[in-house]
Design goal:
- This protein has about 130 residues and is an alpha+beta fold.
- It is built from 4 helices and 6 strands.
- A 4-stranded antiparallel sheet has the order 2-5-1-6, with helices on one face.
- Strand 3 and strand 4 form a beta hairpin.
- It is flat, with a radius of gyration of 18 Å.
- The relative contact order is 0.28.
Length: about 130
C-alpha cells in the first residue's frame, strides 16, 4: 500500500546558517537513501515557500485564483514523500525517521487505490 508522508513545519522567516542547512539536507538525503535502499521510495519533493503559492477555487462556474496559501497557519506543508509500506505501522516508522518530525509534524495518509476500489464489491467501498 502507498502512503503520502506530508511534512509540516514552521516556515522559516530568515535563511538558516549554512552549517545548519547543510546538516538538515544531509539528514534528509540519508532518509531518502534509506527508503530508496528499502524499495519504499515512490516519489517526493520539497515545496517552494508559501509566498509562491496560488489558491484556486471555482464558484458558480468561475475560476478565482488568489495569491498565497489556502489558510494561514503556523505550520505549512513543506514537502512530501510517497512510500510503499506493508501497513500503517511501517509507514509511521518511516514518518518518524523524517528529520522534520523533530521540529514539526508528519501527516501519514494512505493513497487512494482507485483500481482496487473499482474492483471491490459495492458494500466494501461504502463508508459506515
Amino acid at each position: 500500500m502507498q502512503y503520502a508522508l506530508l511534512i509540516y513545519t514552521e516556515e522559516p522567516t530568515e535563511t538558516p546558517p549554512d552549517e545548519l542547512m547543510a546538516a538538515e539536507m544531509e539528514a534528509y538525503n540519508a532518509f531518502g537513501q534509506h527508503i530508496t535502499d528499502n524499495g519504499a521510495m515512490k516519489g517526493g519533493e520539497a515545496l517552494a515557500p508559501t509566498a509562491t503559492a496560488t489558491t484556486v477555487r471555482v464558484r458558480d462556474g468561475k475560476t478565482i485564483s488568489t495569491d498565497g496559501p489556502f489558510a494561514e497557519t503556523k505550520e505549512v506543508l513543506g514537502g512530501f514523500y510517497l512510500v510503499e509500506a506493508a501497513d500503517l505501522d511501517e509507514a509511521i516508522g518511516y514518518a518518524a525517521m523524517i528529520p522534520g518530525a523533530k521540529h514539526g509534524s508528519i501527516e501519514v495518509r494512505p493513497v487512494w487505490d482507485f483500481n482496487a476500489a473499482s474492483q471491490a464489491p459495492a458494500e466494501a467501498v461504502v463508508a459506515d
